[in-house]
Amino acid sequence: MKTLGLIGGMSWESTIEYYRAINKLVNERLGGLNSAKLFLCSVNFEEILPLQIDGKWEEIANIMIEISKNLEKIGSSAIVICSNTMHKIANEIEKQINIPLIHVVDETANKIKSEMIETIGLLGTNFTMEGGFYKERLANKYGLKVILPDKVNRDYIHNVIYNELAQGDFKTSTREKFIEIINELTIRGAQGVIMGCTEIPLLIKQEDVAIQLFDTLKIQLEAAIDFALS
After folding, report:
1. pTM across the whole model
2. Same domain, yes or no: 168 and 153
3. Based on the domain organization, do 81 and 17 belong to the same domain?
4. Within 10 A of 140 (CB to CB), how many other CB atoms are there?
5. Pairing of strands 145-147, 212-215
């Protein structure tokens, strides 16, 4: 089994789920007492978030590149960034390391294409929904039509992710609002919806809605385990 290098802490709530899910997936495949071989570097999100807000992505990239290089140096065979938003600087990281980066957008797109879906809704932070790196990659590389919530709902989702979900606060009223937004995307033609933030699957489950949901955390980790066990 290859050792994976995880970069977490964005937020620690979802990183716990990453750790739990990746070990569960390995055990399901191998049985016994098998678990994943991992190095985990968990950042202090209080230091990262202000840089995101101020648009200091070059500074963020330098931090993530240093972490990735260190994970490679100590024996990681691939990098897993435990955050959709932080894939905004994934290309910069890939250029500076000699091991693969399990890219959440590519793996999610492959899963969507395997389901013969052409039009997909996208939920996430405003960095993810509006930043271009996610939507444009889905459209230009994979030919998918991407539908976003309207601006009011995008801002709502963004604020809830940071002010509630990332702090472990999962309200029934918030779940109901997310279901409403997902249903609106369905009416507008979405054939599926990407839960493009690792905290969203902690709030919304497939049984909550009729449309197919794509859990990027699980999709990314399944690809990581495929690599680790190859």
Report:
1. 0.89
2. yes
3. yes
4. 9
5. unpaired
Of the candidates 180, 212, 211, 216, the one whose C-alpha atom is nearest the C-alpha of residue 198 is 216
Statement to judge: residues 126 and 209 lie in one domain? yes
- Tokens 């191998």 correspond to 30
Q: How many CB atoms lie within 10 A of CB 155?
A: 14
Give, for all 230 residues of the chain, the pLDDT tens digit.
999 999 999 989 889 999 999 999 999 999 999 999 999 999 999 999 999 999 999 999 999 999 999 999 999 999 999 999 999 999 999 999 999 999 999 999 999 999 999 999 999 999 999 988 899 999 999 999 999 999 999 999 999 999 999 888 999 999 999 999 999 999 999 999 999 998 899 899 999 999 999 999 999 999 999 999 99
Cis peptide before 11 (omega within 30 of 0): yes
Range of the domain at 110: 105-215
Domain CATH for 36: 3.40.50.1860
Quote the number of domains for the chain: 2
